């Protein structure tokens, strides 16, 4: 019989989420550093590449925990990390992303549904991509200073400004991110069936 969703996330669940998020965030940092010298890839592809690779770790957590609140916690923690890094105004934004992503998972055993996980992860990933534009919309001058200190060159900043001020270019980034997020969940689901389930890591 299929395991039903328990109501509350416990300490062991939090540890599982934390472990998967640490791996995912570490990978995201590496992806950012590797793609930064290539502005077009960094701006339009880094969020999608992160979504593709991170999907497997998210699916491990989703299938192990199978409880509502996982995506909300995932997106909220990501927002808090951004806040600690100096972008405190992103915390409310990511709380909204967390709520929307979690609403995509309403229902019974949705965290073990391949389709619903695909939708929820895609929404979360799109939220991450759009979140890259929020600092520029919020305060371009302050963002310029912070970005320059992080290693951004003038060409990257100009391309980023062009992207966030063009609905068509933002839509392009959203589409790329969504496609890579979906492909990531398809790949991750296959890994779960072939390796993680056999190893007893997920049910």
UniProtKB/TrEMBL annotation:
InterPro entries: CHP02185_IM. Keywords: Membrane, Transmembrane, Transmembrane helix. Pfam families: Trep_Strep (PF09605). The chain crosses the membrane at residues 14-35, 119-140, 168-188. It comes from the Bacteria. This is MptD family putative ECF transporter S component. It comes from Blautia difficilis.
